[in-house]
TrEMBL record:
It comes from Ilex paraguariensis (yerba mate). Residues 1-17 form the PI-PLC Y-box domain. The lineage of its organism: Eukaryota, Viridiplantae, Streptophyta, Embryophyta, Tracheophyta. InterPro entries: C2_dom, C2_domain_sf, PI-PLC_fam, PLC-like_Pdiesterase_TIM-brl, PLipase_C_Pinositol-sp_Y. This is phosphoinositide phospholipase C. Its cofactor is Ca(2+).
Amino acid sequence: MFRANGGCGYVKKPDFLLKADSPNEVFDPKVPLPVKTTLKVTVYMGEGWYFDFSHTHFDAYSPPDFYARIGIAGVDADTLMKKTKTLEDNWIPNWNEVFEFPLTVPELALLRIEVHEYDMSEKDEFGGQMCLPVSELREGIRAVPLYSRKGEKYQSVKLLMRFEFV
């Protein structure tokens, strides 16, 4: 959430959490609410792993098998993760997949993006992540940088994505 304000450490609560209609009214995230908007995310492709990782980092004898997990972290009704197909032996995966996320409380929703390398014999390997406040997303095609598990930005790794509110 702090990426929304340049990392200064303060994010104002949404108005509905600050102004109640009655003095005893409290926001309950478990109460079913109507869908306010639907976020449509298109994951086109990824690139940059070839430059930021050694060529044997993921697989010793073949290029990596990448897949992306795209989802929403927020109130229970909005929380959901979806997965692209796994593309075998490709340093520049080209998924071209569309995902839709109906959102009841978009003000509290975060778009979660993770990339993993599929490994049949062991645990899948981490390839990058990003978390973006849905309230800060702008419609259009964007190059989304990915970060390590420690939160360090990779120099070259990015995903080409489109964001739309429908």
